[in-house]
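Narrative summary of target 7.
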Amino acid sequence: MNTDRQIASVPITIHGRDVNERTQCAHYHSERDIIAIRHKCCGEFYACIHCHNEAAGHPAQVWPITEFHTEAIYCGSCHQTLPIASYLSCLNTCPHCQAAFNPGCANHYHLYFEQ
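Modeled conformation, tokenized:
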């Protein structure tokens, strides 16, 4: 079942399948799977690449290094956004609320960010 979730009091909609208030989805739902990513191709936040590929109707594009200043990461714990560069250098900890991010996400960076 596809669901889009607008997080309370935050005007950001997180798209994906079975998305909960922490941005966990049907594909990734461990305690540390709490980020959503704004996709370069459409500007929409998705819980993961699989959610995007299932629902968007177009291929995903990676963010070029020259745009790593873009606020494209959403923390499902504190509901703050952060620039890609901050996310990539945060050592898997939200700089706003100190929530732990999944270090395994680094295995998928090439799907989202120019390497």
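The mean pLDDT is 93.
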